[in-house]
Amino acid sequence: MPISHSEQGKKKDNEKAEILGMQKPRRRFSVMAVTKLRSALSMGRIRTPNFSSKSKVIGTLFGNRRGGHVHFSIQEDFKQSPSLLIELATPTSVLVKEMASGLVRISLECEKNIERKGLKLQEEPIWRTYCNGKKCGYAINRECGKEEWKILNVIGSISMGAGVVPGSTLQGEMMYMRAMFERVVGSKDSEAYYMMNPDGNGVPELSIYLLRV
Hints:
The chain is α+β, with helices and mostly antiparallel strands. The chain has helices spanning 5-22, 29-43, 92-101, 146-155, and strands spanning 53-64, 69-75, 84-91, 104-110, 126-131, 134-141, 161-165, 174-187, 190-195, 206-212. Helix 2 (29-43) packs across helix 3.
């Protein structure tokens, strides 16, 4: 039996309503992302492996909240230039989602090269990047320039926290997460950074590994 134009119209309206009903309302990304980062900080724990050398350092992750790449900075002191500044290929939004879902392991790997025999591990220029076992492009070792220093100076002496730095000239608003990390050096070709929590128990929520293989 043929369907009338009015029935066809009702059917299309019903289908449209079903589709609209399935769509979840969008929330403000910055608010949700900062909440997720703070949640990760509150859950972070430090596990103490039996390696040869350990020290506490300041770790800062920052990146444009609208899709810029994540930067990872290590400082011995708030006022000192970073001993390590790496730009990951991972977008800020992706890392936020990963940290909200559970433990995050970022592995940075580079190849041994006879021509760079005297180069320190932190001075390697480029790294293959894996996040929870999945390959996610290459990371690049960066110099701390004027714009990066501006972000770190705005964050200032905060030892633990997450938020948004407004009005930055570095690609707009920047999200950041800062925490104390334990740096564990296994050898000249391996070291790791474990995000710490004041109580010092459990498994770290975020771990970053540097490996020369």
